[in-house]
Amino acid sequence: MQMKLSINGQAHDVDVPAASLLVEVLRDTLGLTGTHIGCDTSQCGACNVLVDGVAVKSCTMLAAQAEGAAITTVEGLGSPDALHPMQQAFRDAHGLQCGFCTPGMVMAGLEIVRKHGTSLTPELVAHELEGNLCRCTGYLNIVKAIVAGAAAMEAAHA
Amino acid sequence: MRDFALVRPASLADAAAAFAGGGEATYLAGGHTLIPAMKSRLRMPDAVIDLAGLGLSGISTDGKRLWIGAMTRHADVATGARAIPGLAALASGIGDAQVRNRGTLGGSVANNDPAADYPAACLALDAVIETDRGAHTADDFFQGMFSTALAEGEIITRIGFAIPARSAYAKFRHPASRYAVVGVYVADHGGHWRVAVTGAGPGVFRWAEAEAAIAAGGALPAMAADDLNSDIHAGPEYRAHLCGVMLKQALAGLA
Question: Computed over its alpha carbons, how large is the radius of gyration of chain B?
Fold first, then answer.
């Protein structure tokens, strides 16, 4: 099936089976392996991407359902030399151990900012993160990173 | 996942025609039950008919009922169902944030999972379930585990919830799946009470003894464990106990 996808501001024409998941097309067809597959059962959030700015689990969405939408993956946030403030905050707060859940956590952090703004409490972040699992159980620093990342996003816009 | 033909109709008539087009067909709403079921090959449809292009989302009120389009996402019900705070709170407790950004009201109601939240709201809020072919009352709609009054190929278009004087939903969430181990929705329709229970039995049901006891101001009843669900998460006695606890929590949270 021919699909036109808009990913990180770039248009892609792909020819994949209709049953392809968005995460499969991102990783296997387009080589955007920053988006991870953790559980593949809509639990862990490692596959979070933004669809028109809203966080979704790309393992539970057909690529075809993303046609016409603007997809943002972790590759679209910043560059190694100029990390997005939310990415930089994960680095600064040591918000990762093995790193597997990190792309999804960063996207979840952006979703929390979208919904609640840039002034966040650890309690709110912990509650809103319930759709993301960290098997290293490094949640304390992840929560700190998202609180700090949100504040840094505010400062970057000030 | 086995491959299928994806159909994207622009009208209800085209959707129904595609459904009747031969082979096993299924409608796709938010996909948060269907896609996992297809991944595990519990479902292997030949045709998947995406309802996203039919304009079936949105929230409005006519004063008596809050009408919510079938394709409205849980996240939008959570923020938009202001006329019924209990329903908005219920929607904000479904799944997790990312799931609520995709899952839909109509998909959940059509699926009628015995542990889903929306069926309890439909029953307690005396909902009207409108379809491309007519309308069903919630009392007639839910017919036990994954079974509804929908005919083959019938499409839910919108659901009208009676706006109660007060209502609330309390659920004992399974911590991993976030489905209701037991959920109880209580609604005060001006002295006439409706109480619906999900998660406890093979399908959502009204708790007539609780409705009568609340209306009469009497002692709350105990739920009988007979015929309640038993699985690795909870046995029937525990679920029966939870029914009473969730009933009290819902009554304490009426708004």
Answer: 18
Q: What residues pair up with B135 in beta bridges, in sequence order?
A: B130
pLDDT at residue A158 above 80? no
Mutation site, B98, B101, B104, B179, interface A, largest A CB count within 10 A: B98
Q: Say whether residue A57 is in contact with chain B using an 8 A CB cutoff.
A: yes
- The token pair at B75 is 């996240």
Over range A124-153, report the average pLDDT.
97
Q: Are residues B175 and B185 in the same domain?
A: yes
Kindly report the pTM of this predicted structure. 0.96
Q: Please indicate, yes or no, whether residues B173 and B123 belong to a single structural domain of this protein.
A: no
What is the predicted ipTM?
0.96
Strand partners, B183: B171, B198
Q: Where are the domains of chain A?
A: 2-75, 85-157
Residue-number span of the structural domain to which B108 is assigned = 54-162
Q: For A85-157, which CATH class?
A: mainly alpha
B61 and B105 part of one domain: yes
Instruction: Find chain B residues with C-beta within 8 A of A45's C-beta.
Output: 96, 98
Give pLDDT tens digits for B124-175. Answer: 999 999 999 999 999 999 999 999 999 999 999 999 999 999 999 999 999 8
Quote the Cα angle for B98-B2-A45, to 5°. Answer: 20
